[in-house]
Specification:
This protein has 412 residues and is an alpha+beta fold. The protein has two domains: 271 residues, L-amino peptidase D-ALA esterase/amidase (4-Layer Sandwich), CATH 3.60.70; 121 residues, Ubiquitin-like (UB roll) (Roll), CATH 3.10.20.340. It has eleven helices and 15 strands. It has a six-stranded mixed beta sheet. Strands 3-9-8-7-6 form a five-stranded mixed beta sheet, with helices on both faces. A hairpin with a 2-residue loop joins strand 12 and strand 13. Helix 1 crosses helix 2 and helix 5 packs parallel to helix 6. It is globular, with a radius of gyration of 22 Å.
């Protein structure tokens, strides 16, 4: 079962004016499951995104980036299309042609150009995209388009996820009420080097495209780029931010304005909730672990040490076993690549239990205290470097027998 994760209440997911969602069962890989999603945007919406840094990036990532760069300045993105069950990655020129063909078909249904459609895929790698099934399912998606369809949309983008992931916020910008709603999918192959597996957040705020790009990058760095389940960066990672511009407000164009900062921070809060839900739903996960590194010389060195801990199979299996074999954490800190780290200054805590200091075990540490913390379903690993004022927090999970079983059987 996911770690303290429950499915979102459909009634809590707020419609975003100018954004409609429609779902279909297209039988892309398995029958009788929602596996195709269309997100239609009213004319004038703005879209920005960040994508996987994996050099073997999937065809839909390539096509989406191309379409964003090719878009006429007087036109806008009109639709996002998401399929599960097939990643369309490692598929060469045929994969690119297939992604473009599905865009063309949806564009015909919506009365726009194919460049105004952005494709996204997730699922098995190196399998040809079943274009015929996708095109056959798109009319049902269009017929299902509704602004209050976020919960069903979250279900439609799941792969090995056990629960849908969605969140909403409503904030005041001046005298206007602004809505932010987002969905994400992911449970395995999680170490985003840009964003998430797939994430889509929409707001009705009016915001300039440069600031929208700034907001999506900020949100990614402080949410999806702070999580890891297994250290694998997917070929298909994409995180998209949509601004429909339907709110009754002046367009935000100043990055220093309190109104933009408030919007950016609220978007980031939604992204953090979605990112943490991915970790809580990590394949076979039984524990949710926050890794907090403080007192560093730079945020980057704090993140480097944090990820060394969060990636370590030895650390993660110790957490699964509730085994306070905490020398594994010290070893991970030591090989993180901070060459001038003075371990004599370092302190290591499990929640409020001081485990190590002055380069070794705290003389007052009792293994029973460590075991008590390790048996919890939520744990904080806190590393204090005592060499500066920078900090970073990352989120990960344990590594269990079920993780191996899920991934061994994934294609079955």
């Amino acid at each position: 079962m996911p770690v303290n994760l429950v499915a979102p209440d459909p009634q809590s997911l707020l419609p975003v004016p100018g954004v409609a969602l429609g779902v279909a069962e297209a039988n892309i890989r398995k029958p009788d499951r929602k596996d195709l999603l269309v997100i239609r945007l009213d004319d004038g919406a703005k879209v920005a995104g960040v994508f996987t840094q994996n050099r073997f990036c999937a065809a839909p990532v390539v096509v989406t980036r191309q379409h964003l760069s090719m878009l006429d300045p007087n036109a806008s993105i009109r639709a996002l299309m998401v399929n599960t069950g097939n990643a369309n990655a490692g598929t060469g020129k045929d994969g690119l042609a297939n992604a473009r063909q599905t865009c063309t078909h949806l564009a015909e249904l919506l009365g726009c150009t194919s460049v105004q459609v952005l494709p996204f895929s997730t699922g098995v790698i190196m399998e040809p995209l079943p274009v015929d099934r996708i095109t056959a399912g798109l009319p049902a998606c269009v017929a299902d388009l509704r602004e209050d369809n976020w919960f069903t949309a979250a279900q439609a983008i799941m792969t090995t996820d056990t629960l849908p992931k969605a969140a909403s916020r409503r904030i005041r910008i001046g005298t206007s009420t602004v809505t932010i709603t987002g969905i994400a999918k992911g449970a395995g192959m999680i170490h985003p080097n840009m964003a998430t597996l797939l994430g889509f957040i929409a707001t009705d705020a009016r915001v300039s495209l440069p600031l929208l790009k700034s907001a999506v990058a900020h949100a990614a760095r402080h949410s999806f780029n702070c999580i890891t389940v297994d250290g694998d960066t997917s070929t298909n990672d994409s995180f998209m931010l949509i601004a429909s511009g339907k709110a009754a407000m002046d367009e935000l164009g100043d990055a220093r304005s309190p109104d933009f900062v408030a919007l950016r921070d609220a978007i980031t809060e939604v992204a953090i909730q979605l990112a943490q839900a991915i970790v809580r739903d990590g394949e076979g996960a039984t524990k949710f672990i926050a890794v907090r590194v403080e007192g560093g010389r730079s945020e980057e060195e704090c993140r480097r040490i944090g990820f060394a801990i969060a990636h370590s199979p030895l650390v993660k299996t110790a957490f699964f076993a509730s085994d306070p074999n905490l020398g594994r954490i010290l070893a991970a800190i030591g090989y993180a690549g901070v060459a001038d780290l003075d371990v004599e200054k370092l302190e290591l805590y499990l929640d409020d239990v001081l485990v190590a200091r002055h380069g070794g075990r705290n003389p007052d540490y009792q293994e029973a205290d460590g075991q008590r913390v390790m048996q919890q379903s939520e744990i904080t690993v806190r590393v204090v470097l005592n060499r500066g004022s920078a900090s970073a927090v990352l989120w990960t999970c344990d590594l269990s027998h079920d993780y191996v079983s899920i991934n061994a059987d994934y294609r079955s």
